[in-house]
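User: I'll paste a sequence; please echo it back and then give the predicted structure.

Assistant: Echoing your sequence first, then the prediction.
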Amino acid sequence: MTSERTSAPGDIVFVHGMYMNAASWLPWVGRAEDRGYQCHAVSWPYHDGPPAELRAKPAPALGSLTFGEVVDHYKSFIVELPRRPIVIGHSIGGLITQKLVNDGYASAGVVISSAPPQGVVSFDPNFFRANFPHVNPFAGNRPVIMTPSRFHYAFANTLSRQASDAGFEAYVVPESRNVPRSTLTKQARIEFKTDHVPLLFMTGDSDHLTPLAMVRANSARYAPSTGLLEFTEFPNRSHFICNEPGWEDVAEKVAVALKADKLLLFSEWLPIDNKRAVLAELTAKQAQAMAGKSGLAPAAVRTLRCALRALDAGVARAHLVSRRVRGAMLLELFTHSGVGTMITADPVQKIRTARIEDVRGIIALIEPLEAEGALVKRNRELLEQEIGNFTVIEHDGVIVGCAALYPFPEEKSAEFACFAVAPGYRDSGYGEQLLLACEQRARAARIRKLFALTTRASHWFLEQGFEPASVGMLPERKQALYNWKRNSKVFRKRLR
């Protein structure tokens, strides 16, 4: 879980399709922004505003809007950006994405359930039934108003009518008939032999509005030598693929294609331990084992497998976040401990010998304990000189624990010192792991005894097998340095 945002890896422009506006991309925008992208969800002309208000009062000029005007609208926006963006488009937004890629306005294109460019046709009966109402040549130029029943057939045919109606209320806006009509003209011509930036085509296999075979045929029109192109289909997905349940799978594929650092998955379920506390971390191996357990809800299994596929494809980490916790996304990504479950290919916790670049992290860890008098003060220069004596625990790039081993070779003993674990990790076994690592280092150096001085943690040392000792049992050099004012208790442990 990152504690701060890194520099933005690029811009993304999201392009919606017909009967939608920029609000349909909000879940995707949040996900991409959390990976550091600068995101721009731009509505078509006459499409800005709450969908319910637009349905109640369509803009008078909407009916005359054409495909070419929408493309120009996005070009005018993109030229003001500091760099060419990644463009992600759905439906006619996918065709707009192809046009922007074709004309050199994008650094990469993600084309989802795309409307067909000029010259690509479908004879699927569902295609004609779903598309005829908005291209009807006898309807004039008045805006077309989508109905809930037609939305269910054309857009959301894999959903229940109740779920479809909820999507209608949340997203649907009036549309211009002249946008799809003008895609039959040269406004929607794509030069398939022109070199292009990477393109990812995706679609569902149950789409009535833009059938799978048609989208595949569209992607196949690009000459293989013109650039990188990938095609992916999703089972049991309708044209509402970017917003229907399971849209996270589509976003996962995009995240992998964009070489994303993280994948964020909102879920009704989070993994818990025996005390019913949310597990902060899982390795891929642990998540795989959990997904294979009997009795786990199908939605939970699906969420875990979605995360695992992303990790297998190279995404560094997947975050499972509860839909029910207010501000969960921000807490998960911008606090180090998070509130959800992070799944990584390898453990995010590493125990290792300290390096000079760790000094800053060690200081941040021990300064509060020094101020309380629990640790003896060490300045930066001393820490830099003694850094080779330190072992640290690094959790997701942050130093959360440290301990030092100071050898007294003449007595074959060593001091276990400067021991600190960050407050949020003191019940995670990190202290025990640090001690074990220091004991291993001591044995390698043929040390037979450890000793420690403490003013507060007597009970912990006793639990780890240390025994109370007197100052007189310390090595002579250490006895000479003993601070009687601190009156630290002495503990020692024989190493076997």
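The two ends are 38 Å apart (CA to CA). The longest strand covers residues 398-408.
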